[in-house]
Amino acid sequence: MKNARFVLLMLILFSGTALWGCQDPTPKKSDIFKDPIVVTPNPTQYQKLELALYEKEETIAKDGNPYDYDYFKVIGEFTSPSGKVTTIPAFWYQHATIFLNEADQTPPYGISGVASTDPNEPQGREIVTPVGTPHYRFRILPTEAGSWTFRLKVFQDKVETETLNGSFNVSPSSETYKGVIRVDESNKRTFVYENGDSFIPVGQNVAWYTSSTRRSVDYDVWFENMNEVSMNIARIWLATWGFALHWGEYDNFSSRYSHMARLDRVVELAENFDIKIILVLINHGQFSSIVNPEWESNPWNVANGGILEHPLQFFTSNEAKRVYKNQLLYIIARYGYTKSLFSWELFNEVDYVDGAALGSLVVRNWHDEMATFLKANDPYHHMVTTSYKGSTGSAFNLSSIDFVSAHSYDYAEKGILNNLPEVLNSVFAQYDKPVLQAELGINWQNGISSYRADPNGYSIRQGLWAGIMGGGAGGAMNWWWDSQIHPYNLYYLYQGAATFASHMNLSGSDYSQLTKVSGVTVNRTNVRYLGYRFDNRIYGYLYDGSWTHRNYDNILTKNGVIMEIPFASGTYTLTYYDPLNGNVIAQSELSVNNNKAILTVPGFQYDIAFIVE
Fold first, then answer.
1. Low-confidence stretches of the chain (pLDDT beneath 50)
2. What is the rounded distance in angstroms from the CA atom of residue 439 to the CA atom of residue 481?
3. Are 405 and 386 in contact (CB under 8 A)?
4. Where are the beta strands (DSSP E) in 383-469?
5. Would you identify the CATH topology of the domain 21-95+132-170?
6. How many C-beta atoms lie closer than 10 Å to residue 2's C-beta?
7. CATH fold match for the domains 21-95+132-170 and 512-612
8. What fold does the segment set 512-612 form as a domain?
9. What's the pLDDT at 10?
C-alpha cells in the first residue's frame, strides 16, 4: 500500500499543469519564516500589493536554488472580501534602488541599437544597488476593497512543511478598472477588456533599452512621448542584453537582479503612462547559431555548463522544459499582477531557431505545453501568443494561442494600404483569431535606411490605418523605435490613428468590413476605402489608391467625393477626422433614408476618416 500511495502521489503531481504541489492536510510546522509583512503602505484597490516573507535564518539560498520551485516554493492563497481566491506563487527577490547619476556624463554607446545623446533628455549613468536581504515576495492586484485574508503554504522538495496565515485591509479606489484584455469572442477579430470595452492597440516596439548609460531611463523618455500622442501598447523583449532572466545561469537568476529590477521599473512606468505591454519571453538569437546568433554564449549550452547539446533540445528535453516552467512561474509571480500586461509572447520569430524547420512539430508541441502551463498558473488569465518571421506558423493553429502576432518587412515596393488588409484577412481566415501586425516595415536592415526611404513616415501612418481599418486587431507596430521614431521625432504620426481608435467600438457579432458589404460605392475610381459597418455605427477610412511612401508628391486634393453605404434608416451624427492628427474636420447630422447612407466627403489629399453613429 505504501508503494501504491507513492505512485498515486506522483500521478497527482505530474498529471496536472498547475504546479501547486502535493498537499499534506496536516503539515508539519518547520518554523522557517518570520511573520509575513505587508510591504505596501495603505493598500488600495486596483494597485499593486506586495507581501514579504523573510527567513529566520538564511538557509534557502545556501542549501539550494531558490528559483527552483521543485526545491522550494511558497504558494499564496489570497481570499477577497467576496470569497474569491487568487492563488499565486511567491518569487525570490532582491530589493534594489535605482537612480540616475546625472553627474556622470560619459557619452553612451548603443546597446544593439542607437543611444540618444539629446541634452534636453535625462542623461547620466543609471545605478542599481541591492538593498537588504533576499527573500520571498508576493505581488497581487486586489480588485476588491475591504478585509482580505491569506494563507501561505510552504513546500520543500514538493512536500508541504509550513503554513502561515494573515490578513490586510484594502482601501476603496475611485479608479475605473476595466479588467484584463481578452479576445472578443463575439467576432474573434478584436480585443476587449473584461468589462466589454474595446481595446484597439496603437503603438510600437520598444524591445530593449539602447543607452549604455541611462539604461531603463530610456523608457521614461519613450513612454512619455508615446503617451503624449495616445499610443497604448509597447512590445518588449526579455533580450539577453536587456531584461532576460537566464543569461547568467540557465536556472538561477541571482546574477540578474539588476535586470529584473529595471524591468520592475519599466512595468510601473507603463502603468503610469497607460501603456500595455506585450512581453516577449525569449528572443530567437538565444537558440540560433545563424540569425542574430547567441547560441555560442547561451548558458543553456553544455559548452557553458548548461544541459543542451543543440538548440532544438530546448523544445524536447524534459529537464529543459521543467526548468523553463520554473522560469515561467517566476515571471507570472513577479509580473502577472500588473495592469500594464497585455499578453505573454512565448517566442520572437521562433522559426529562426536552429533546426526549427525540421523540428516544426516539436516546436509546435512545446508551444502548446508552455501556453497551457501559463494559462493554468496565471491567476489573471492573460492572453498568450508567439511569433514567426512571417504571418503564419503552425503554433497559431493551437487553441492555447490566443492571437496571431504577424511580422513583415515586405513593403519596400508595395503599397501598405492596398496590400496589408488582404494579408490580415487571409491570416484570419486561416486561424480564426485576431491578427495583430506586431512588426511591419519597408526595410529590415535599420531605421536610418527606413527614414531615408520614407522621411515623411507615410509607411508608418499607412500601417496604422491599414491595421486598424483593414481587418486587423490594431495598428501595425513599427520596429525601428530607437533609430527612426525617436531620433527623427516621428511620434506625431500616431496621434491621428490613436485618437480615432479611442472613439471606436469594434465589439459585436454584426462586425462587417466595408470592403465586403454589398452595395458600398464611391464615385471616384482612385479613391479606395476601408472600415466597418455595425447595426448602429460605421467607421470609415478613405484614401488615394496611388498613395505610397514612394508616391506622394503628385497626389491631388479630391473634392466632390460621394460615398454610399447600405445602412439602417434613421438620424445619426457624422464626424470627419484628420487621419494625421485626429482633429475633427466637420460634424453634422446625417439623415439616412431608404436604408442608404449618402456621404458628401470634405476635400482631402491623401486620406480622411469618418464615424457615423
1. 1-17, 20-25, 27
2. 11
3. yes
4. 383-385, 404-408, 435-440
5. Immunoglobulin-like (2.60.40)
6. 5
7. yes
8. Immunoglobulin-like (2.60.40)
9. 34
The grid cell for 382 is 492573460
Residue 389 exposed, middle or buried by CB count within 10 Å (0-12, 13-18, 19+): middle
How far apart are the C-alpha atoms of 177 and 95, rounded to whole Å?
Answer: 28
Tell me the sheet residues that pair with 52: 37, 137
CB under 8 Å, gap of 24 or more: what pairs does 118-121 form? 121/221
Q: What is the pLDDT of the chain when averaged over all its residues?
A: 95
Which run of H or E residues covers position 183?
strand 181-183
Contact 267, 140 (CB under 8 A): no
Closest CA to 234 of 346, 342, 121, 389: 342
- How many residues can be counted in the chain? 613
Residues in Cβ contact with 266 at an 8 Å cutoff, skipping those fewer than 6 apart: 216, 219, 236, 243
CATH topology for the 185-502 domain: TIM Barrel (3.20.20)
Amino acid residing at 274: D
22-74 confidence digits (pLDDT tens)? 444 454 555 899 999 999 999 999 999 999 999 999 999 999 999 999 999 99
- Comparing CA positions, the residue from 326, 444, 447 lying closest to residue 21 is 326
Give me the helices (H) in 178-292, please: 217-228, 257-272
pLDDT tens digits for range 218-233: 999 999 999 999 999 9
pLDDT recorded at residue 31: 85
Rounded Cα gap, residues 50 and 37, in angstroms = 9
Task: Order the strands of the 521-522 sheet from edge to edge.
Answer: 521-522, 561-566, 596-601
Domain residues of the chain, as ranges? Answer: 21-95+132-170, 185-502, 512-612
What distance in Å separates the CA atoms of residue 533 and residue 519, rounded to the nearest whole number? 12
Residue type for position 483: S
Report the pLDDT value the prediction gives residue 15, as an integer from 0 to 100.
Answer: 34
Q: What is the largest CA-CA distance in the chain?
A: 87
Joined grid coordinates for residue 31: 518554523
The set of cell numbers assigned to 221 is 523618455
SS3 content of the chain, % helix, strand, coil (to 5): 25, 30, 45
Kindly state the cell numbers that stand for 459. Answer: 509607411
Which residues partner with 235 through β-bridges? 205, 278
274 with 234: CB under 8 angstroms?
no
Edge-to-edge strand ranges of the sheet holding 233-237? 203-205, 233-237, 276-280, 341-345, 383-385
Residue 540 pairs in a beta bridge with 531, 610
d(CA 560, CA 582): 22
Identify the CA nearest to 590 among candidates 568, 560, 612, 561: 612
